[in-house]
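Shift notes (night). Ran Solute carrier family 15 member 1 while the centrifuge was going.
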Amino acid sequence: MAAKSKGKSLSCFGYPLSIFFIIINEFCERFSYYGMRAVLVLYFKYFLQWDDNLSTAIYHTFVALCYLTPILGALIADSWLGKFKTIVSLSIVYTIGQVVMSVSSINDLTDHSRDGFPDNVSVHIALSMIGLILIALGTGGIKPCVSAFGGDQFEDDQEKQRSRFFSIFYLSINAGSLLSTIITPILRAQECGIHSKQRCYPLAFGVPAALMAISLFVFIVGSGMYKKVQPQGNIMIQVSKCIGFAIKNRFRHRSKQFPKREHWLDWASEKYDKRLIAQTKMVLKVLFLYIPLPMFWALFDQQGSRWTLQATTMDGNFGAIQIQPDQMQTVNPILIIIMVPVVDGVIYPLIKKCKINFTPLRKITVGMFLASLAFVAAALVQVQIDKTLPVFPAAGQSQIKIINLDTNNATVGFGSQLNSVNVMSMKSTDYMTFETSQLRSLTVTYGNKTTIKSVMLSEESRYTLGIKTNTMSVVAELLSDEVTSKPEEGNNLIRFINNFPDDINVTMGGTSFGILKPLSASNYSLFPGGRKDEIMASINSVPCSITSRAFGFGSAYTIVINGCSQDGLDILYSEDIPPNTVHMAWQIPQYFILTCAEVVFSVTGLEFSYSQAPSNMKAVLQAGWLLTVAVGNIIVLIVAGASKLSKQWAEYVLFAALLLAVCIIFAVMAYFYTYIDPNEIEAQLDEEEKKQVKKDQEVYEKQVEDDSQM
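Came back to this:
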């Protein structure tokens, strides 16, 4: 790889050497951002212990902030510091934010009691919010600067190389986001900690922080090679001033004595030149079409919030691979890489051959419709998930399940006015729901042996009744289950009941359940999903073991130890909460439909915008486009907060219906839109300016001639 000097700039294969530092910088930065963002909603839910709605709200507030700050970054770069200093300054802020975020997730920071839970959650919340604000300022602030700074490195005669640079630059963005959304969820799933082992959020946030530090270091190393263009003012400020002056001037001259003008922006002609006014008109015409677009982003960005939370209630077992809920987001960038060439090279040419005029605005309309369809698919999946969720006791209710620990069948009666149930030997029933106030006693019968047990149940609680006979009587032990929600993150809850006449010492997978007395139960312990573990029991100082079954994901089991035989432990499994049975693969259709929507919406949207506005106004359109993303995330906060829907599938349908309504409105707006050619308009302006210059020149020459004759 030969590098040669060309003046002050070094080149490599005809490209400025400096752009390689910029591409590496962008790859690391995108890895940092998307890696952190991939695990963010689960960090809110499981570490900060926020509910789904608050987790979703804060997530979308952060994303909205990330898309509002680019306007600030562009203004700082173009009007004050310049692109290089802006990127360096805000990258430092960005790196500090990532480090603060990593520190905020260290459980041992406030876990003075060493029980595995933070003693002062407020400290972690405060640090998290500080970190996220700094990250939003950093990532948003440098977003409009890095690509433009890369473009500045090329000479005017390197248009081909510049075009290829932007292709490689976009590829580095996708590569960084794809790798990070695969890797950081794996890091999060690890267990780490000083005093107690927890999900390793410090590592999941720490690696993105390290990548951001590398990104900053690489960018600074290339400093001596960069071409640094001085700030020349921001076109957005000029456009804003032009619009502001037109509105103010029109308001001043609202009286009927002043003649109307063709367009309200023409009221700026007293102060601003005809070219700027004409260019602003073209931009506003496109920005008007942007008004319905935020609704698309409101749905699209829920991949990282609601869809990730949906995945936590699903089965992620793909054979040899266990997929984490936050890894399902990788489906989108993978499909993007596949679908962009397929749509451009196959779908669009086929549509053209069918002689269908598939205009850019029609493509955007189809994209919005497909996104709405994706949320209908998500709702259908959610309906299936809801069918598998256990029903827990409501207010005024209690639930009881029965485990028959005896070799004989039994009958259990629930008071005089309630039905009785038969329980087969060494079997268990499902949970039965009772009004707490009505159930005061239980009658257990084995043949001619009967016992009546008084009970005092708590509302909204579950119980397990263990029953057995001995030579003299019937034994009935009522055990409190203390589990009223499904285990999250695909984990399993396991406990043991000792059905042996002697004390036993139980361990499973390295977790000790302690010494269990006869007919007593251990507390539940948490185990990662999808695993098999060795169960060890010491009975009369004699060790006995067996390998457990694979428990699936999101389940709870009571394991009854009956004794030890030549084959190992004799155990009985009783399912307290069924595992997740809806597979994560069922999310792929909704991701596929949404990715197709993104391809025809996002790519076409920017392409259309640039084709309908002057080249020097691209910054204004980019700011407007990013603003639609920010507003879309704010819409999620408003709709999710105002809807008060108890069922998640209903919220998905609501979003789908809202986007469909907006899609119809946009289709009407698009129908009345007239396409323009900015180059043709600018050519007319150039011609008019030339005529004006020529006219002014003639007036001047005539004036000089008249003066000379006097």
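The first strand starts at residue 3 and ends at 6. Confidence is low (pLDDT under 50) at residues 1-8.
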